[in-house]
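Quick one, tokens below. Sequence please?
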């Protein structure tokens, strides 16, 4: 396996772990949903589409269902390459989602009790809304961004400083596993199963795996290095925009302490940097650094390019983005005992204008 490919797989599992408290429950096997899922010969999980079965490395189901919607399942794919991810990868994501969401029938056929039974008789079938989130450690090209926006594929740029620790952890273990040659013979289904057990995102599926003791030790150490950042999380923010905001925090306790007392509150939005280096931060309006929290995220590249395109208009364009796309950000988080909490982060420019 080429090192960059392995880095992408490891990053996917790390992201699934970071999303553990955002209501994102991993589907690990056909047993989780025999109607929608199947398994290939190599052990990889596949989702039934209208025209084909599609391999899915990381698939999760959200424990909350948005109003006037279907239960949501999200394909999570990540790339860890030196260059930006281009249009072909995003086109593939759109093709998969379109085919999977087209695969729907009201019932699943069951054995007819007699020759006179109606043809449509069968067990009622659940339906889901599948979405796709594509993460990249090196960002995306402009045409990939435009295509994703048009087809509602969520692109998440992990190239900012908030994810430096994560990129380093993934790069180090991939280098250790592949060795000096940069390749290794691995069965990816075994790697995922073992790593998910160590990250506690899945139970042991049973049976033997084909990994060597050395590689299993490396995966265990990788999981331990992630858990040393146990307060690190990805909180999914849903703004009034055609994209999601995976917001990073290195101290989830602070976020919970504040939002438990004030689930709906006014926030500050700050932008640091320019163009693709820009990173945004969220913090409570009325709290200092010791009492509040800090979340960070990146906006799609085409938005950042527009903001920074004309230097003298930059402040005005930042304000427009805040008011048009980020006036309210909804965050969902699962409780340890079950259930989901909802938080409303509201941007209000009035206090700034009154200063």
């Amino acid at each position: 396996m080429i090192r960059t490919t392995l880095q992408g797989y490891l990053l996917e599992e790390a992201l699934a772990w970071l999303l553990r408290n955002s209501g994102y429950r991993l589907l690990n096997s056909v047993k989780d949903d025999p109607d929608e899922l199947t398994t290939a010969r190599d052990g990889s999980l596949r989702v039934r589409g209208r025209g084909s079965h599609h391999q899915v490395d990381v698939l999760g189901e959200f424990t909350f269902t948005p109003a006037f919607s279907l239960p949501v399942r999200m394909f999570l794919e990540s790339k860890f390459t030196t260059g930006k991810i281009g249009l072909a990868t995003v086109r593939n994501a759109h093709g998969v989602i379109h085919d999977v969401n087209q695969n729907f029938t009201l019932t699943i056929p069951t054995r007819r009790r007699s020759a006179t039974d109606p043809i449509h008789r069968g067990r009622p079938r659940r339906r889901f809304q599948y979405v796709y989130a594509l993460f990249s450690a090196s960002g995306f090209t402009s045409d990939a961004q435009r295509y994703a926006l048009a087809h509602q594929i969520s692109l998440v740029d992990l190239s900012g400083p908030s994810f430096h620790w994560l990129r380093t952890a993934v790069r180090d273990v991939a280098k250790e596993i592949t060795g000096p040659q940069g390749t290794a013979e691995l069965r990816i289904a075994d790697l995922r199963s073992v790593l998910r057990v160590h990250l506690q995102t899945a139970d042991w599926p049973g049976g033997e795996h084909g990994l060597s003791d050395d590689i299993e030790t490396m995966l265990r150490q990788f999981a331990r290095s992630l858990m040393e950042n146990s307060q690190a999380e990805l909180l999914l923010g849903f703004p009034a925009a055609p994209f999601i905001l995976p917001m990073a925090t290195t101290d989830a306790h602070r976020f919970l302490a504040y939002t438990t007392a004030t689930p709906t509150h006014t926030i500050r939005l700050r932008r640091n940097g320019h163009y693709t280096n820009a990173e945004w931060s969220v913090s409570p309006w009325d709290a200092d650094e010791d009492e509040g929290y800090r979340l960070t995220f990146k906006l799609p590249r085409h938005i950042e390019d527009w903001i920074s395109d004309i230097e003298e208009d930059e402040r005005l364009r930042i304000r427009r983005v805040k008011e048009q796309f980020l006036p309210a950000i909804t965050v969902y988080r699962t409780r340890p005992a079950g259930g989901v909490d909802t938080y409303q982060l509201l941007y209000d420019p009035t206090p700034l204008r009154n200063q």
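The mean pLDDT is 88. The first strand starts at residue 24 and ends at 26.
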